Amino acid sequence: MLEYKELYVGGNWAPPATDRRIHIVSPHSTEPVGSTPEATEQDVDRAVEAARRAFDTGPWPRTEPAERIAAVRRFATAYLARQEELAELISTEMGAPIWFSHVGQVGATLMALDAFLSVAEGYAWEEQRLGSLGNPMVVRREPVGVVGVITPWNVPHFVTVAKLVPALLAGCAVVLKPAPEAPASGLVLAEILHEAGLPEGVVSVLPAGREVGEHLVRHPGVDKIAFTGSTAVGRRIAALCGQDLRRVTLELGGKSAAIVLDDADPSQVAQGLQMASLMNSGQACIAQTRILAPRHRYDEYLDAVAEMVGGLTVGDPLDMANYIGPMVARRQQERVESYIHVGQQEGARLVVGGPGMPDGLDTGWYVRPTLFASVDNGMRIAREEIFGPVLCVIPYEDEDDAVRIANDSDYGLAGTVWTADVDHGLDVARRVRTGTLGINQYMLDFGSPFGGFKASGIGREFGPEGIDAYVELKSIALPFG
Predict the structure, then answer these.
(1) What is the fold of 2-252+456-477?
(2) Across-strand partners of 34?
(3) Where are the domains of the chain?
(4) For the domain bounded by 257-445, which CATH number is listed?
(5) How many angstroms separate the CA atoms of 452 and 447, rounded?
(6) Distance between CA 196 and CA 194 in Å, rounded?
(7) What pTM was estimated for this model as a whole?
(8) 410, 390 in Cβ contact below 8 A?
(9) What is the pLDDT of residues 266-302, one digit of tens each?
(10) What dihedral angle (degrees, nearest 10) is formed by the CA atoms of 299, 434, 143, 199?
């Protein structure tokens, strides 16, 4: 059983303000597998007070960058030592297939840590310039202050590291609120952070629900909010932060398009989309869920993708043989099922999957991997983020039409172009209004900025831009001569 009795408040394990608990239920067996304290507004107040003290009067923001880098490196070393345990924990708690927990949960977290440490070594914390009037200028990058970090359940450690680590490297204090669907994954990070020996007050970890998250967003002691989650919640957070001119970065939803050009090999496209479209059982904001195929070769690409989707193994997430695991919760299973019904009602043609439990499974929050054909980009299944293993194949007339369809979305987070001509694929990618794209694959580069256009968010993570999000710029004019 995954059991925690205390919260991590200001760098120390402390009893929660109340006896409220978050009960963790296995998405596979639907049986209880543990519990943690549920943080309240009083716990947030204690954590922000400790963070405020650590930032305003403590040593952390005033340490040399090299010392902060060394502390984050200790965290990375301690995280690496527990990687097998951490992968199993995430799969048990939120249902990620264990192969993905090794590669896309823990493995990606370790790569992101390494990338941030590398970027921080060469980051321009302070530089001298020649001013426009000929006098010397010092430009400093100073920590933004106390940061409230609010993270989702789907990739709990990876998304946390994308915010926590650059904030720490910049010299900020952090109050982290993990999602209630992955509370133990959050508190185990507190154990590892404690082992790294950060100063008192610098980090708190408080699993809780949306109401407590809103209290953190509104708290006058918080200087910045960093959030990953739904666009609807992101809009609410942006509005609240705007009222107080509080800094904010938002990594939100997606409905990404995979543009298949007519020179692409169907089998290679299908093989690549297995990961790009269906990683983490489709519970990924970057998933390529709109597959745009040329009308004159539509059936070839559809058949190849259908064969891939129909061949996926579904079941116990702790079994390495299974590619697709359960949805995180019953409500998510019901949500995805409802979109499958919507697709049928809208007139899309069901090719693979459909409503109901996958064959051989009678318990768990599972959904059949589903593929729709004859989809129009105006249908809800092509416009709204489903967050499950449901794909649409949309026909296009020519390349201009493909780009038009790709851009005809409220979102702009990710995308791909599939082609035998990489240079031509790059030309097409330049025309798509989205924050990240891949040619013949989709992957995040942790040394380059990640984030979205339009309703997919505000700001960027990773690379030097990821640290930029946690600093304020200060210019100091020095005397002439």
Answers:
(1) Aldehyde Dehydrogenase; Chain A, domain 1 (3.40.605)
(2) 2, 24
(3) 2-252+456-477, 257-445
(4) 3.40.309.10
(5) 16
(6) 5
(7) 0.97
(8) no
(9) 999 999 999 999 999 999 999 999 999 999 999 999 9
(10) -10
